[in-house]
């Protein structure tokens, strides 16, 4: 149990340069790309466009168009182009033609909604890949009327008495960690309580609590793949003495994937209470679990003994907190999970979350986390913690995806595109979330295939790669 601080092998994760295993790469030096001075200015009021572009790839161009216009932009998968264009004050249609060259495009205006741009080589119906607009996010700020108090081991102070004295409400408790989430009537009351606890000998520490935004659900069906067969995966019994490998998917609520696949999925652990899920929408967790099972099937050749433990830290809310994520990891590890998948993140650096991750790492449990879907170098947590394998995403050509974080904390690049099946339909998902699910399941599959335990999964992943050059980094 995590609350006992089990001693075990600590996994230290150096960053590895260009270790290629099929379509997965282990990285990295200081940065994946240099800053660009190329520009696209879209004046929507005048419907005129200025551009000074020398070497953008097509996805980068369309992402900038989505950012500038607010349109939903769809691209035919595997269509590529290097964009070079320089002009001023061209009408929007002429500007698109100048930048897209011989590619076809259709703009569908919407008077009461969001306009759509389809870019394709063969047909409009083939433009199914959504190019996401990336809004600049403000740095995470602590929840103003909350904090997490951590009591020292063996403390005689009861949290109920302490909360009453502070005028706080206990809204979360992790007794095994001596960590308690306290909520106050106002930010001023929370600040005053922090001052009161500054000299309390029974308090080990006080931590801010940060919001972690809910990853988006999947809502775009890929019509060209509608007739794809459902995934068939067969259970394989462990040999005597084999470890039971179990991936914890710390995520949103999940849905049934059908009788054949549900046999690999444990009942969900709900950290954020009971939930209701819209059956017409594919939740983020469902897509990640489907991605993992698909990858297990490919690597384990249609059969696996790996199980998946869903842990819902969002419930019906649009956001979780770093406290919820920490509690989810503890719950997963205590349920027997021995690989952790965190297809989520924020810019909030939490003492408690890092403490829990350190404990899990010390038990020999590999942890994979998403680097983030912004083309920046700033850290995303928990991916940026040194005990975590930070995963960024590649595009269909194997290059760094235009939307993906490329910071020095990144350890690994994996495919960011995944097609998942749900209720007889195929859906395209894209991002560092699916890249993380790909990486975690690959590590599990390699261990499963080798009859190894989870604490050997990372070394198997590394030794399976080719071109074994390694470098030292701050991580």
List keywords for this structure.
globular; Rossmann fold; serine-type endopeptidase activity; 27% strand; protease; disordered N terminus; 475 residues; Peptidase_S8/S53_dom; nine-stranded mixed β-sheet; disordered C terminus; single chain; Alpha-Beta Plaits
Report what the structure shows.
This protein is of the alpha/beta class and 475 residues long. It folds into 3 domains: 2-33 and 217-470, Rossmann fold (3-Layer(aba) Sandwich); 39-131, 3-Layer(bab) Sandwich (Phage tail protein beta-alpha-beta fold); 146-209, Peptidase S8 propeptide/proteinase inhibitor I9 (Alpha-Beta Plaits). It has 10 helices and 28 strands. It has helices at residues 58-69, 92-100, 159-166, 187-197, 259-262, 284-299, 322-334, 351-362, 432-449, 457-463, and strands at 16-17, 19-21, 24-26, 39-43, 48-57, 72-75, 82-91, 104-108, 116-120, 129-131, 146-151, 169-174, 179-183, 203-207, 211-213, 234-235, 246-251, 269-270, 303-304, 307-312, 319-321, 339-342, 367-370, 389-394, 412-415, 417-422, 425-430, 469-470. A 9-stranded mixed β-sheet has the order 2-3-25-24-23-22-17-20-18, sandwiched between helices. Strand 12 (169-174) and strand 13 form a beta hairpin. It is globular and about 75 Å long. It starts with 15 loop residues before the first strand and ends in a 5-residue tail after the last strand. The relative contact order is 0.16. Residues 261-448 form the Peptidase S8/S53 domain. InterPro entries: Fervidolysin-like_N_prodom (IPR054399), Peptidase_S8/S53_dom (IPR000209), Peptidase_S8/S53_dom_sf (IPR036852), Peptidase_S8_subtilisin-like (IPR050131). The active site is at 251 (charge relay system), 284 (charge relay system), 433 (charge relay system).
């Amino acid at each position: 149990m995590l609350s006992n601080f089990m001693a075990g092998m600590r996994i230290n994760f150096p960053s590895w340069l260009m270790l290629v295993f099929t379509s997965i790469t282990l990285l990295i030096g200081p940065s994946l790309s240099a800053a660009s001075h190329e520009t696209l200015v879209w004046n929507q009021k005048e419907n005129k466009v200025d551009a000074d572009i020398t070497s953008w790839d097509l996805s980068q161009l369309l992402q900038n168009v989505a950012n500038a216009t607010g349109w939903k932009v769809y691209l035919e998968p595997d269509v590529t182009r290097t964009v070079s264009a320089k002009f001023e004050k061209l009408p929007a249609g002429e500007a698109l033609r100048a930048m897209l060259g011989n590619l076809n495009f259709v703009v569908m205006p919407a008077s009461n909604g969001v306009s759509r741009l389809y870019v394709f080589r063969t047909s409009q119906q083939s433009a199914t890949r959504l190019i996401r607009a990336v809004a600049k996010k403000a740095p995470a700020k602590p929840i103003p009327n909350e904090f997490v108090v951590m009591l020292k081991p063996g403390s005689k102070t009861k949290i109920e008495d302490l909360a009453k004295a502070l005028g706080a409400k206990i809204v979360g408790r992790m007794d095994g960690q001596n960590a308690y989430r306290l909520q106050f009537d106002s930010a001023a009351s929370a600040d005053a309580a922090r001052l009161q606890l500054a000299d309390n000998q029974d308090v080990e520490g006080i931590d801010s609590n940060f919001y972690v935004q809910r990853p988006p659900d999947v809502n775009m069906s890929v019509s060209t793949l509608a007739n794809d067969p459902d995934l068939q995966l067969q259970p394989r019994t462990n040999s005597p003495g084999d470890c039971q490998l179990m991936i914890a998917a710390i995520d949103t609520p999940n849905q049934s994937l059908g009788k054949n696949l549900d046999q690999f999925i444990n009942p969900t652990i709900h950290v954020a209470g009971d939930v209701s899920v819209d059956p017409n929408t594919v939740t983020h967790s469902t897509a990640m679990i489907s991605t993992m099972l698909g990858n297990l099937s490919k690597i384990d050749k249609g059969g696996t003994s790996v199980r998946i433990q869903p842990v819902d830290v969002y419930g019906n809310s649009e956001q979780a907190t770093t406290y919820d994520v920490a509690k989810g990891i503890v719950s997963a590890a205590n349920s027997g999970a021995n690989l952790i998948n965190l297809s989520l993140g924020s810019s909030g650096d939490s003492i408690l979350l890092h403490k829990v991750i350190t404990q899990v790492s010390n038990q020999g449990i590999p942890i994979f986390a998403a680097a983030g879907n912004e083309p920046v170098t700033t850290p995303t947590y928990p991916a940026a913690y040194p005990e975590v394998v930070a995963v960024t995403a590649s595009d269909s050509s194997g290059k760094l995806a235009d939307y993906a974080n490329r910071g020095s904390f990144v350890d690994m690049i994996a495919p960011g595109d995944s097609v998942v099946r749900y209720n007889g339909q195929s859906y395209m998902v894209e991002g560092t979330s699916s890249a993380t699910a790909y990486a975690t399941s690959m590590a599990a599959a390699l261990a499963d295939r080798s009859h190894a335990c989870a604490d050997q999964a990372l070394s198997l992943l590394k030794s399976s790669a080719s071109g074994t050059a390694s470098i030292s980094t701050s991580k």
